[in-house]
Design brief:
By secondary structure, the protein is mainly alpha-helical. The protein is 84% helix and 0% strand.
């Protein structure tokens, strides 16, 4: 098996590039398209994403699990890949046609048909969406390199072609073509691992788990994406712009943390089949690693939210700062939930359990959005999202705890909280005495981060000390060690 540490690092880099470049692009286009233009594109992409997610069925998770389970057996891998590729082609055709029908029959969409057509290109290119193959093979090095190259090209195209407020359709087109390039590279590179077979295919054996995951994904989309849909219907483009930019920022931190649990998924699937003791150890390691990161990240997120919005988007987007604060608890809930209530359940073949929880969360989310958006607008939508995440992951944790024992080192968690409090004091002092927004933000992040890890080492947080010793051993040949 490939190095788990390298996989996690590559996956963090991959997820980071997948969000950092869109963040850079949003910083640029926010000052050109303004909040109205950002809101228009965000709403169009939101509508298209329902169809793109439906077209993908449950492949991102199911494909990784099946490829990881098969291992190195070439014929079985070719057969499984060909079957899943064929199913993906059928579902993509169905939902691409459904999206075109929606555009043709809905007046608001017809009025902006160019925008919605460009946003919908991600549906058409889903034919070539086989990223699950590389994740199942744990080839995160290729995924990271490919993603970074495409993002650089997309960013260059953005600077060249989006220069005026009316260029929002070009922005949507460049975003969709970036996704399409990733898919095309994946399809070409797939020859390294698999060959397409056109005979002796058994599509039926995949349908039940795929449909369960697809239904789970559908209801998951409701509580993940209905907020933008309802904001667009109940407020205006500017409010959607505030919300979508705040969501991008919080998404970076969440995806960086989720990269760790995503890198664990192939290993979780393997150990569930072969070594339950190692599975439990791996889950415990994942939980404590995530807590080590998200506890200080949540506090830091609240402290620097205003500065971050001012630096990234300017004063016109300042209402998004409060939205970031509302979103802060999502860092803990979403990252731990991704590992324990998504990756782990799918690895165990228990995806049906998530379906029921997702249905309840979707219903609650729609109700909360209907109540909170008219009162608090973008902040109400953020609150509804956080509450829905707590609900779905709370329901699933009851199920997970019955299936596997999770050992939480309470003393280690208390040490993390104590180190975080030390970091908070330092950051508040910096913000009190440093007036410059850029300098205050840089010092808050760097000095605050160093303070957290220094206090953590002083308190002997075992996970932190172990990793620091590995780094020192590599570069200083073990002359210094933390005990």
């Amino acid at each position: 098996m490939r190095s788990l540490a390298k996989n996690s690092l590559y996956n963090i880099l991959y997820q980071t590039t997948g969000l950092i470049f869109p963040l850079i692009s949003s910083i640029y286009v926010s000052r050109i398209l303004m909040e109205d233009g950002i809101g228009k594109v965000a709403y169009a992409q939101n509508i298209a994403s329902y169809f793109a997610s439906a077209a993908a069925l449950g492949f991102p998770a199911y494909g990784i699990r099946e490829i990881a389970r098969i291992g190195a057996e070439k014929n079985a891998k070719n057969k499984a890949f060909s079957e899943m590729f064929a199913i993906n082609a059928i579902s993509t055709t169905v939902f691409a046609l459904a999206y075109i029908l929606l555009l043709a029959t809905t007046q608001p969409f017809r009025e902006e048909w160019g925008l919605y057509l460009c946003a919908g290109l991600t549906i058409a290119f889903n034919y070539a969406n086989i990223s699950w193959l590389y994740q199942g093979q744990e080839d995160y090095g290729y995924i990271t390199a490919r993603s970074a190259a495409v993002k650089v090209l997309s960013l260059a195209a953005l600077f060249l072609f989006v220069k005026e407020k009316d260029d929002y359709i070009r922005y949507a087109l460049i975003s969709s073509l970036g996704t399409a390039c990733n898919y095309c590279f994946d399809l070409f590179h797939a020859r390294k691992y698999v060959q397409i077979r056109l005979h002796d295919l058994d599509l039926k054996r995949h349908m039940r788990p795929l449909l369960i995951l697809a239904a789970t994904g559908f209801f998951g989309n409701i509580y993940n994406k209905i907020d933008v849909t309802m904001l667009g219907a109940m407020t205006n483009d500017a409010v959607v712009g505030y919300y979508s930019n705040a969501h991008k920022v919080v998404g970076i931190v969440i995806m960086c943390c989720n990269a760790i649990s995503m890198a664990l998924m192939p290993r979780l699937s393997f150990f569930y089949q072969n070594d339950r003791k190692e599975l439990s150890r791996l889950v415990d390691l994942g939980v404590h690693t995530l807590l080590l990161l998200v506890i200080p990240a949540t506090a830091g997120f609240v402290l620097v939210s205003r500065n971050v919005v001012l630096l990234l988007y300017g004063e016109r987007f300042l209402p998004a700062a409060a939205t970031l604060v509302v979103f802060a608890p999502m860092l803990i809930v979403r990252t731990l939930g991704d590992l324990l209530c998504y990756q782990l359940l799918v690895s165990m073949g228990q995806e049906k359990k998530r379906l029921y929880a997702s249905i309840w969360a979707a219903v609650v989310n729609v109700i909360l959005n209907a109540i909170l958006i008219p009162v608090w607008k973008h902040n109400g939508a953020a609150a509804a999202s956080v509450i829905s995440e707590v609900l779905v992951n709370g329901i699933l944790m009851v199920t997970v705890m019955k299936m596997i024992k999770i050992h939480i080192d309470v003393r280690a968690v208390l040490k993390m909280i104590f180190a975080t409090l030390g970091m908070v004091i330092i950051v508040l002092l910096i913000q009190q005495y440093v007036a410059s927004v850029p300098l205050s933000t840089i010092l808050s992040v760097t000095v605050g981060g160093v303070t957290y890890f220094a206090i953590g080492l002083a308190l002997r947080i075992e996970l932190l000390s172990e990793n620091m010793n590995k780094i020192l051993e590599k570069f200083l040949y073990g002359r210094i060690r933390f005990r």
